[in-house]
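Hi V.,

You were right to ask for the full record rather than a summary. Here it is.
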Amino acid sequence: MKTESEIIQIARKTLQLEAEAITGLANSINNDFSVIINTILQLKGRVIVTGIGKSAIIAQKIVATFNSTGTPSIFMHAADAIHGDLGIIQNEDLVICISKSGNTPEIKILVPFLKQSGTILIGMTGNCDSYLAKQADYVLDTTVQKEACPNNLAPTTSTTAQIAMGDALAVCLLECRQFSSEDFAKYHPGGSLGKRS
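Predicted structure:
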């Protein structure tokens, strides 16, 4: 059993590690990022966001943020994609594929089908030497030094980095679109957010 002070120290260390990882992400923002923003702004279709495991959960959150801030988006689970859900993707859509390693088997199976269809592929990965990074048209680097998990295994810092990168995309897109509080209210008619706007 941990003492009260040990528990507080673990929590503080976790938050500090994750804060440092997000701060480090600022250095990974490069020309690819601005090209991605401009490509999405000119997109006639939708942004499809996909991933596997914890990255799939992050993908769903990014889709929710995009949809509520004026960027039409759909979540597609990477495992389901190769069992029929590829039909979600239309000609003028763009795909953001999220994978910490960039080398998971499902991603390696999915990517060739995306490339074959001519879809613009953005890889969000913590491994810029990975299969996903090498196959993607553009890369969002979410590399972290270590997970907050003491075994350096459970996705913690890496998923925080993914969510932060998704937020950076969403905020840039809404500012470029001059998405107002009135626009926000249109997408949030219920609950406290809708009343506040």
